[in-house]
Fold this sequence. Notes:
- With 93 residues, the protein is mainly β.
- Helices cover 4% and strands 35% of the residues.
- The chain has one helix at 85-88; strands at 14-15, 25-26, 35-36, 39-43, 49-53, 60-64, 71-76, 79-84.
- Strands 1-4-5-6 form a four-stranded antiparallel sheet, with no helix packed on it. The chain has a two-stranded antiparallel sheet with strand order 2-3. It has a two-stranded antiparallel ribbon with strand order 7-8.
- It starts with 13 loop residues before the first strand and ends in a 5-residue tail after the last helix.
Amino acid sequence: xxxxxxxxxxxxxxxxxxxxxxxxxxxxxxxxxxxxxxxxxxxxxxxxxxxxxxxxxxxxxxxxxxxxxxxxxxxxxxxxxxxxxxxxxxxxx
Length: 93
């Protein structure tokens, strides 16, 4: 049954927005547009992957999950300080 016909979110999947957002563009062969997945599930295994669903389709999409550090750049009088964003949350100036 397509996800659009279900009254609830599919079990184990989250709506692809807010803190659960994963960039996952889907382009179906018979469609001319590309849209983001409506529901995603991240599977953290030795080879992490993302499973995605699109509301109007019965298909299940999957691809490897890659992550990279987010950096915060700050100007300082001695030059530019570069640090990871998660480190800057705990940095007291």
